[in-house]
Each structure stands twice: as C-alpha cells, then as structure tokens.
C-alpha cells in the first residue's frame, strides 16, 4: 500500500486519508497547519499546495532523518504562530476519529493543563499505551503496551490527538529522535506538569494495518466515521468520476471504486477499495480487500482480506484469502493460487 505512497496519502473514501483530517480540523476552526513529513515527503505539497482549497494555510517541514513522534513536534516549532501560553493542536497522521476537537481544546483551556490528551476506551488495550487518570481527569501514569493482567489497570488509551501549551513544545530536545509517548509525556509527568485526559468514545480507529485502513475507508463511505471530505453521498458504495461499473455488478459495504477503474459483469465487491485505474473482471468476488492503482483482478477470482499492490495482476480463477499481500507489479497466472497466508 505504501511502496509508492506515504500512508497519510493512501486514498480512503476517494481522497487521500490526510484530507479527512485536514477537513475536520478546518471545520473545528483551525486555520493554520504545519505538516511534519518524512517518508516520500515530496508528494504532499504538490497535492495540497498552500491549503487554500480547504480553507487552510498549510506549511511543510521535512525530516531528513526520522525524529519520532516527539522529535517531529519539536522540529516544526519555528513554524508555529501561537504565543507561549496558547494551545497547539497535534494529530497523529494515521488515526481516523470522530473526536470533538473543540471539546478537547476547551478541556485544555478550562483545566489549565500543560498538555491535554484525547483518550478512548478499547476492549483489548494490550497493543496500545494505557493512560490512567484520577477522578478529575488528570493523568497519573503512562503504561506502554501492557501484556499481563496486572499491568492492565485501565481501558483508557492514548488516542493520538493532543493539545500542547506552546511553551512546552520548546522543552522537547531538538535534533534527535524523541518519542512523545515514551519520553516526553512520562518526563513531563515526573516533573510535576499538569497532563489532562479527555475521554471521547466516539468513532476511533488506528489505521496501522491494511485491514484497518480498508475498514476505515468503508466506514467513511457508510457514514459511520464522520468527515466533510467524502466526495459524494454516503451509502453502500462510492463510485468516482470516470469509473465504469457493469450494470449487474454488486457493490456493497462501503466499497469505493476509484477514477478510471473498471468493474466487470457480475462482479461482487463488498467493503473494499478499488483504486484508480484498476480492473476487476467479470464474476470476481472481492471482500474486505484493497486493490492498488492499475492492478487487475482476473475473472472469477476470489479475494478476501487481501491487498493487491499497484500494477499487480492476479489471473482468472485464483483464490486469495486471510491477509495475503501481492507485491506491486507482481504477476499471478490463471488458476495458480488457492491458499491463505497461513497455509
């Protein structure tokens, strides 16, 4: 998915995922945004320009070497316009959320916090950083990815959106990698800083896996995840301009068909993303999968939970299931594969 495209620019519900974050920030009253970029940084500015099409003023700062989550924040400090005691809103670039952005800023200002964090609750917190709070919402600890039952003291996790007091950003060490989760936040807490948590349990999804990314795109199309940037009416399908879909093809579950893509007769596509210029031939069945740009899926082929890279070709009468990835520009002949990733 990210060989040719950085994750924030992979299309979700018809537009680069970052578009949804920018549009929601603008709807909350944000006007100036600095993008901290690293991998394939050169693709962001040609697409978004100065941000005027979204009603924003965008600036870009590129990390020569990856600086981590905290280092990235410190690296853009010179571009921020806020005064020392004014708030700076920060988003992770791979989180799809229905967070009430204004409420997070209000919580920060009314509590007098140095840093405020969006927290959400999850059933299984082992893959995330736990953030317990006292009865007033003040953060008491940071517990990174606990594994034992004794370590799981709360179901509240760091949801990847923060408000910093501007002066706090200047205390982050410059010019070296820094983890905001493992170094900055625990260090501030140890120094007696006020870190406030706001639990907002609206829609939240970490797009850290291909399956999660596909699900997030479908949820945007279905209207489960909020965004003013979805380019069309929400529903079972989103077919972009220039795409060709056969009259008897069935598209459901928030499926997206990108510009110039082709879906053949009798094909069935559910909860999937078909990127620009891709072809799904007659009778193919595609479920919870992503088909890259210019890829081709042969007639009667079955995909379930698969990712097919840009330009790849999967011949007719194949079956790919359960997390199979096909590399960009790979070629699979007709009737060659009937297996899942655990076989």
From TrEMBL:
Residue ranges of domain Nucleotidyl transferase in the record: 2-219
A family per Pfam: GMPPB_C
Signal peptide: none
Superkingdom of source: Bacteria
Family matches, as CDD domains: NTP_transferase
InterPro entries for this protein: GMPPB_C (IPR056729), Mannose-1P_guanyltransferase (IPR050486), NTP_transferase_dom (IPR005835), Nucleotide-diphossugar_trans (IPR029044)
Domain Mannose-1-phosphate guanyltransferase C-terminal: 236-316
Family statement: Belongs to the transferase hexapeptide repeat family.
PANTHER family for the chain: SUGAR-1-PHOSPHATE GUANYL TRANSFERASE
Protein name: NDP-sugar synthase
